[in-house]
Amino acid sequence: MAIVKKWSHYTKENIKCVPNVVGVYELAFINTKEKTKKTLYHGEGLLRNRLLAHFPDGKRPEEIVVGANAFRFEIVKNKKTSLKRQNQHLEDHLDEHGKLPPFNKRSKN
Description:
This protein is an alpha+beta fold. It has helices at 12-15, 47-53, 79-97; strands at residues 8-9, 22-31, 36-46, 70-75.
């Protein structure tokens, strides 16, 4: 089941409004003129911290998600649930597109 929350512009200002609680999130490139969306990354963890970590000035260059201009998220109960939901999003993406999003590595359980 996909995240149902509406897409927001991926800016630090918008992320400041995101609660820093456990959840899952999706980063994407949305082309509004062509009305296309490409999912770049599915993640999980403390939402605000994790979303900020993917900006170019983040502390770990290996976490940067180049090209992301939109995000959406879902709050969950606990870490175990967030890992389960992330894995489900990755499986669904793999089933639909035949490959994982470009910035995801195989998820570990």
